[in-house]
Specification:
The chain contains eight helices and nine strands. It is α/β, with parallel strands linked by helices and 292 residues long. The radius of gyration is 21 Å and the shape is globular. It has two domains: 2-106, no CATH class; 115-285, TIM Barrel, CATH 3.20.20. Helix 8 links the parallel strand 8 and strand 9. 26% of the residues lie in helices and 16% in strands. It has a nine-stranded mixed beta sheet. Helix 3 (144-156) runs parallel beside helix 4 (175-184). Bound molecules: S-adenosylmethionine and iron/sulfur cluster. The site of S-adenosylmethionine has 19 residues, from strand 6 and strand 8. S-adenosylmethionine binds at residues 124, 130-133, 165-166, 168, 192-194, 218, 256, 258, 284, 286-287, 289, 292.
Length: 292
């Protein structure tokens, strides 16, 4: 089993290490996976982000990635408390039938996660203080073939909605090809960006951004506080100019505001800003990892 430390919660998952030994069982159980989960397919396995607190995640290693593919979870190797934790965390939806214990449950998997996060690149132009990717931001970019392979796999798992992110996705020179591929596969996408390059987007990319669910711009504060958090002087004003560009070209956009101690007081102003632009703003708590 691999358990990852994500925020302050570790969700033990499947396989060799049994966290508690208290109630081993030889029986199999099939559980419904919560479709609200977001899955991130990686070369070495699958990361599932749970729906309730969006930064609780579990990691399934390569063998266990078949959970998604085979649409079931075998809980026979898990302790009673691990299964309980998975259920509490919202990954497993099924309720125990009266009179049977967890290990005797057997359900058909009806729903699977239908959203996935696709990291296009580890490259980034910012150095945000709280970035959860800070330790792995480098120049690595998966090849186009690799990305297409991942998209195909995710599609075969039932994923239809893609969060296109990174690093900074607008640094991908083949972004047009990637988005076109998603469109040709009839898949939906939204793109999360730090907004640095929105002024410079060419007409071909604008056409593809118009087809996105939305372009989502990250905010870590208003004005200088945003620039300070992103260690990028002038970025906030650049974003505002970029948004004028998107607006004029009828591209839908929204904001993610990562709430942290330093920017709590800017929230009303950020909401006003979004409201004035007729855009949705999602407030997300900062995830305490690495530099955050
Ligand atoms: C990793 S960034 C990648 C996309 C792009 N570079 C950007 O900043 O929008 C994706 C989103 O995660 C947010 N984020 C980064 N570190 C975070 C953390 N520790 N907790 C919560 N959100 C975080 C960013 O603010 C951004 O909205
Ligand atoms: S812009 Fe995005 S990827 Fe880059 S450092 Fe900031 S949060 Fe991380």
């Amino acid at each position: 089993m691999k358990a990852i430390h994500w925020h302050n919660l570790v969700v033990p998952c499947l396989s060799e290490i049994i966290v508690d030994q208290e109630e081993p069982s030889g029986k199999k159980g099939l559980f419904v996976l919560n479709p609200e989960c977001v899955i991130r397919y990686q070369s070495d396995g699958v990361l599932i982000t749970l729906p309730r607190l969006m930064f609780e995640s579990i990691y399934l290693d390569k063998d266990l990635a078949s959970v998604i593919k085979n649409r079931m979870i075998d809980i026979s190797e898990l302790s009673f408390s691990s299964v309980k934790l998975l259920k509490q965390s919202g990954l497993l939806l099924s309720k125990p039938i009266k009179g049977l214990d967890y290990f005797e449950q057997s359900y058909t998997v009806a729903n699977l996660p239908n959203r996935a996060i696709l990291d296009l690149t580890h490259e980034c132009n910012c150095h945000c203080l709280t970035c959860y990717h800070r330790d792995d931001l480098d120049n690595y970019q998966p090849s186009l073939a690799d990305l297409i392979n991942r998209i195909n796999k995710l599609k075969s798992f039932g994923v239809v909605n893609f969060e296109i992110t990174g690093g900074e996705p607008l640094l991908r020179h083949d972004l047009i090809e990637i988005l076109n591929y998603l469109i040709n596969q009839r898949l939906n996408y939204f793109l999360v960006t730090n907004g640095e390059y929105l002024e410079e987007v060419n007409d071909d990319l604008i056409e593809l951004l118009k087809k996105a669910i939305a372009v989502v711009i990250s905010l870590d504060g208003v004005g200088d506080r945003h620039d300070l958090a992103r260690k990028r002087p002038g970025l906030y004003d650049k974003i505002l100019r970029g948004l004028r560009n998107l607006s004029q070209k009828n591209v839908r956009f929204a904001f993610i505001y990562t709430v942290q101690e330093a920017n709590v007081h800017d929230i009303p102003e950020a909401i006003e800003l979004a409201y004035s632009m007729n855009a949705i703003i999602q407030l997300r708590p900062v995830k305490i990892v690495g530099s955050a």
